Amino acid sequence: MSFSATTKKRLTEILPGRRCCRRALLYGMLQGGRGFSLREMALQTEHTEVSALYTALLEQLCEVATETEKGAFTIVSVPSADREAVLAVFGHTGGELSVRLNRGNFHCDDCAAAYMRGLFLSCGAVSNPETDYHLEFNVPSMPLSRDVLSLWEELGYDAKSIRRKGDNVVYFKDSNVIEECLTLMGASASALELIQIKMVKDIRNRSNRAANCDMANWTKVAAAGEQHRRALSIIRRHGGFATLPETLQELAQVRWDNPDVSLRELGEMLDPPLTRSGVNHRLQRICAIAAELEK
Ligand SMILES: [Zn+2]
């Protein structure tokens, strides 16, 4: 089951305690559905839990029996004779130019969150945090999407909106915000899952970065080793390390014997030991001597 489907299933499992919040939940489901007008009032979903909740809430709160059509998607619709009554329950007439959010349906502090939960159930989706951080509402109309945007703002979250192929999408991209929105809507288990996935991803990224860094260092060490080996073999062909100034002789031999170690390690092998920059300086002198010999 996808992360989105699991989240929706979780959101249908616990009903708000207060009647006002249950109404707000249904209001969100209705407004996010395929229609909320005299002409059409239906919900199209691939989740049986969501269609069952829509049916149950309409029955409980509006005393309306729905019709269900099953196919690739389940379509639950309110019969045309009952649509006006349902609209009236939420303070709409069906004669409005565009469907807007009627704040008169929010009675307690939790009603707005319940509305968002309903809206998410009917027109929302959330990406699997393994691949992307994205939570969206595909709101049926532009004016309503603006209302949803400002309601999120009032709840303390800056959502973004975009028109995508005629759809009005209100969305979040920030993983921390998505986490909080999931919690606010009542899907704290999904929020927790997101946090865990994020932590694992962070650790993985960090160790990848560390591995890349090790690789880069190793390449540098290997390249330097190769350069020194070439210089030292030139010196060996021209009389050997004994022809070098005394201060360079021991280092030349130690380097020749240890082509793969770092400059710091080389320094520690000398007697007396030498710092990394001291080693570097002397090896440069050796390379310069070899370059002269080659001419
Ligand atoms: Zn309430």
Name the helix and strand elements from N-terminus to C-terminus, one letter apiece. HHEEHEEHHEEHEEHHHHH
How is the CATH topology of the largest domain named?
Endonuclease I-creI
Q: Taking Cα atoms only, what radius of gyration do you get, to the nearest Å?
A: 35 Å
**What's the CATH class of the largest domain, please?**
Alpha Beta
Helix coverage percent: 55-70%
Measured distance between first and last alpha carbons: 72 Å
Q: Quick check: average pLDDT? A: 92
Summed up, the helix count is 11
Structural class: alpha+beta
User: How many strands appear in the DSSP assignment?
Assistant: 8
Taking pLDDT < 50 over at least 5 consecutive residues as the criterion, the unreliable ranges are none
Strand content: 5-15%
Task: Describe this structure as you would to a colleague.
The chain is α+β, with helices and mostly antiparallel strands and 295 residues long. The protein folds into 2 domains: 3-186, Roll (Endonuclease I-creI); 216-294, no CATH class. It has 11 helices and 8 strands. It has helices at 3-13, 19-32, 48-62, 80-89, 111-123, 142-155, 175-185, 188-237, 246-257, 263-269, 276-294; strands at 35-36, 41-45, 67-70, 74-77, 124-126, 135-139, 160-164, 167-172. It has a 4-stranded antiparallel sheet with strand order 1-2-4-3. Strand 3 and strand 4 form a beta hairpin. Helix 7 runs antiparallel to helix 8 (188-237), helix 8 (188-237) crosses helix 11 (276-294) and helix 10 crosses helix 11 (276-294). It is rod-shaped. 32% of the residues are buried. The model has no long low-confidence stretch (mean pLDDT 92). The structure holds zinc ion. Zinc ion (ZN) binds at residues 18, 20-21, 24, 107-108, 110-111. Residues 18, 20-21, 24, 107-108, 110-111 line the site of zinc ion.
